[in-house]
Amino acid sequence: MHTAMTTSATPSALASIWSRLRLQSRLGVVVLAVLVGACAFSLPWTLGREASEAGRSVPRYNAGRTADALSAPTWAPTDPQRAWGTDALGRSVLVRCLAGGAASLAIGILAAAVSVGIGTLWGAIAAYAGGRVDAVMMRIVDVLYGLPYVLLVVLLAVASDALVDEHVSRRKERTAWERTRLAAVLGAAAPSPATMAAMLRVPGPEATAEVRQVRAEALEAVPPRTLSDGARTMLNLGTLLVAIGGVSWLTMSRVVRGQVLSLKERPFVEAARATGASPARIFRVHLLPNLTGTIVVYATLTVPQAILQESFLSFLGVGVQPPMPSWGTLAAEGLGEINPYGPKWWLLVFPCVLLSLTLLSLNFIGEGIREALDPRASRTSVATGGAA
Q1: Which tens digit of pLDDT belongs to each residue from 86-134?
Q2: Which residue has the higher pLDDT, 176 or 321?
Q3: Does 3 reside within a domain?
Q4: Same domain, 254 and 318
Q5: Three-state DSSP state, 54
Q6: Reported pTM
C-alpha cells in the first residue's frame, strides 16, 4: 500500500525542528516573538483614546502637545512615553512605533497568507490539470511577471480611493438625479441631454436659477454618506493587503507547480487516482501534506518581503495614510528631519531599527526552517552522528 510521506506538526516534530535550528535562527524566533508581542499586546493601549489639546478625543498614537514637539529621547518616570522622544506634533515616538509595528506586521502576515493561498492553488491546479490548462495558467503568470509591480499597486490604490470617494460623495447618483429633475423643471423647454449636462457643469455663481434650485434639491434628496476615520483606515489597509498579496503569489505558484508535477507521478498518487479519488481529495489528502514544508518555508520568507513592500509603499505615500502610523510612514517622516544643523535622529533611527530587526529575524527563521526541513541536511546529520 502506497502512502504519502508527510511531516506532522506534532510537539515532537516541532521539537525536532527546533533542535536543528541554528543559533541565529533561534535568536530570530526570540526577537520576533518579543517584537510581535510588544506591538500586539500594546494595541489596546496605543489605540486607546485620550483628550488632545483641542479637547477632542483622539487615539493615543495621534495625541500630543505642541509644547513637547521634537523633544529628544529621555527617560522620565513621570512620562515614560517620551523615552524615545517626540515628533514635530509632540506625539510619542514610542507609542507610534508600537502602533505602526502592529500595522506593518499585520499587513505583512496577512498579505503573505493571501500570497501563499493564491500561489498554492494556482500552481497546484496548473500542474495537476496539465496540458493546455497548465500552459494558459503559466503564461498568465509570465505576463504578470512582466508588469511593473509598483505600478500595479499604485493603480489598485488609486482605483480603491476613487471607489471610496464615489461611495461617500454619491456624485454619479446625484448627477443622474439632477438631470432628471432639471428636465422636469424645464418641461417643454428642456434642451438636449448634452446641453443639460453642460448646464449642470457650470460653477455655482454662474449657473442659472433653475440649476441652483436643482442642485439644492439634489443635495437633500441624495446626501453624501458619512465614513468614519476608522472605516477609511480599514479600507486603506485592506486595499494595501489585497494589492501586496494579489501580486506576490507568482513565485509561489511556480514553486508549487514544480512540486506537484513531481508528486503527481508518485505511486501513492497513482494509487489514489486508480481507486477513484476525486482531484480535490487527492490534493487535500496526498498533495497538500507533502507541500507543507515548502509552503511554510516560502511563507516565512514572504512575510519580510510583504512588510518591506508595505514600508516602501507607505514611504512613498501610497500605503498606510496619516495619521495612522506604520514603520514606513514613520521613516518617511523622520527622513525630513535629518539635516546637518539640527538632526532629529530618533525619528528615523527607532522605526528603522525595529523594521531591520523584524526583517532579519524573519529571514533567519525562514532560512533555519528551510535547512531543518531539507531531507539532505537531515541525512547528513544522521550520517555524521552515526559515524561519530
Answers
A1: 888 889 999 999 999 998 888 888 888 888 889 888 988 898 888 888 8
A2: 176
A3: no
A4: yes
A5: coil
A6: 0.76
* Burial class of 37 by CB neighbour count within 10 A (0 to 12, 13 to 18, 19+): exposed
* Residue 230 grid coordinates: 476608522
Cell numbers placing 285 = 489528502
d(CA 159, CA 151): 12
**Cβ contact 373:17 at 8 Å:** yes
How far apart, in whole angstroms, are the C-alpha atoms of residue 127 and residue 112? 22
Residue 351 structural domain: 24-59+95-164+228-387
Q: Do both 272 and 306 map to the same domain?
A: yes
CA-CA distance, 272 to 3, in Å (whole number)? 9
Residues 159, 164, 170, CA angle at the centre, nearest 5°? 115
* The three grid cell numbers given for residue 171, joined into one nine-digit string: 456624485
Measured CA to CA, the distance from residue 331 to residue 309 in angstroms comes to 14
3-state secondary structure of 91: strand
Place of cell 500552481: 123
pLDDT of residue 13: 63
> Is the distance from CB of 356 to CB of 31 less than 8 angstroms?
no
* Helix/strand/coil percent split, the chain, to 5: 75, 5, 25
The answer to whether residues 180 and 156 belong to one domain is no
Please give the residue that has the higher pLDDT: either 308 or 7.
308
Other C-beta atoms closer than 10 Å to the C-beta of 163 total 12
**Which residues on neighbouring strands pair with residue 6, listed in sequence order?**
none
CA 175 to chain centre: 35
- Give how many domains the chain has, as a whole number: 2
Q: Does one domain contain both 305 and 379? A: yes
- 64 in helix, strand or coil? strand
Are residues 258 and 280 both part of a single domain?
A: yes
Distances (CA, A) of 105 to 32, 200, 303, 355: 10, 47, 8, 10
Cis peptide before 323 (omega within 30 of 0): yes
For residue 24, give Cα distances in angstroms to 353, 355, 356. 18, 17, 15
- Side-chain-side CA neighbours of 69 within 13 Å: the count stands at 6
| Grid cell listed for 353 | 531599527
Q: How many residues does the chain have?
A: 388
